[in-house]
Design a protein that fits this description.
297 residues; alpha+beta; 2,3-Dihydroxybiphenyl 1,2-Dioxygenase, domain 1; eight-stranded mixed β-sheet; metal-binding; VOC domain-containing protein; VOC_core; Glyas_Fos-R_dOase_dom
Length: 297
């Protein structure tokens, strides 16, 4: 891969800490995430940076921020243009001070709110906030949200940008390509093989769902991925709630499903059995998949 390498030992992202979702009704959304994932409500507050009222939930180790616009700002702009959906992503770092210094050195503007660094620019369509890495005891019925998918015009340029500003390690990256789903790109794994957390950066082709999304919205966040020990349990809950989902093509039963955006307030969610995503993330030996399982992503 042709990226500009950076020296080791610099501040890095340790995990995908949270997702941010613009919704019309935070109470309704919170109830659904609780019913489906066992998510628990942690806080009600507001963000001046986002221009939003916010309900924060925890599911597994991860946070889900439900946003409704409170006035002018990014949340209102998103809602006016797209309605509901996945707005932004939050990443944890071992030293917020060191990460701030790195952003300064790379001339990346940010705003500090409640100790978090909100990047003021999203040249590749991924609004991002950086927070101090604080361990959490998992709650509910999932492990964590480990991926956001970021379709862009040039995956190499986007990967180079994220590598430079966040201090990511090129040696951890895993190239990806899917003829079935119509994309190629890279997984910017933060801490393999200990964690799956990453940004999936893609260039789309072929007129499939992700390509149609990109042609409509341009650079943006397309979906997120989470893992759970019990995929059939989630399928049963989806059925009981009358929510739409589909099986991933070419996967053994109980390992991989996709929850339709209509079911989760405009957000497409992939669900994989714990560790199964290593099948397409550079370490298929860690996936627990039966021998001969295709590497379709």
């Amino acid at each position: 891969m042709c990226f500009n390498s950076t020296p080791g030992g610099l501040p890095v992202l340790t995990r995908l800490d949270r997702i941010q979702l613009v919704v019309r009704d935070r109470a309704e959304a919170a109830e659904r995430f609780a019913a489906l994932f066992g998510a628990r409500r942690l806080a009600e507050d507001a963000s001046a940076v986002l221009g939003a009222r916010r309900t924060t939930l925890q599911a597994g180790e991860s946070l889900i921020e439900l946003l409704t616009p409170s006035g002018p700002g990014p949340a209102r702009q998103f809602a006016d243009r797209w309605g509901e959906g996945l707005y932004g992503a939050g990443f944890a770092t071992p030293s917020i001070e060191a990460m701030a210094a790195r952003l300064d050195a790379n001339h990346v503007p940010y705003t500090i709110e409640h100790g978090a660094l909100y990047l003021r620019e999203a040249p590749y369509g991924m609004p991002a906030v950086i927070v101090q890495d604080v361990p959490r005891e998992p709650v509910g019925d999932i492990r964590s949200i480990y991926e956001v998918t970021n379709p862009v015009p040039d995956w190499r340029a986007a990967a180079d940008y994220y590598t430079r500003i966040f201090g990511l390690e090129l040696a951890h990256f895993c190239p990806i390509r899917s003829e079935l789903y119509g994309y190629e790109g890279v997984l910017t794994l933060f801490d393999p093989p200990h964690r799956l957390d990453r940004i999936e950066i893609t260039q789309t082709f072929g007129g499939r769902a992700m390509d149609r999304f990109f042609q409509k919205r341009g650079p943006s966040l397309y979906m997120c991925y989470l893992e759970t020990d019990d995929v059939p349990m989630l399928e049963a809950r989806l059925d009981a709630l009358g929510l739409q989902y589909s099986q991933a093509e070419g996967r053994p039963p109980g390992t991989n499903i996709f929850i339709h955006p209509k079911s989760l307030f405009g957000m497409l969610v992939g669900v994989s059995k714990t560790n199964f995503a290593w099948l397409w993330s550079g370490r298929p030996d860690l996936s627990g998949a039966p021998e001969g399982t295709p590497l379709i992503h």
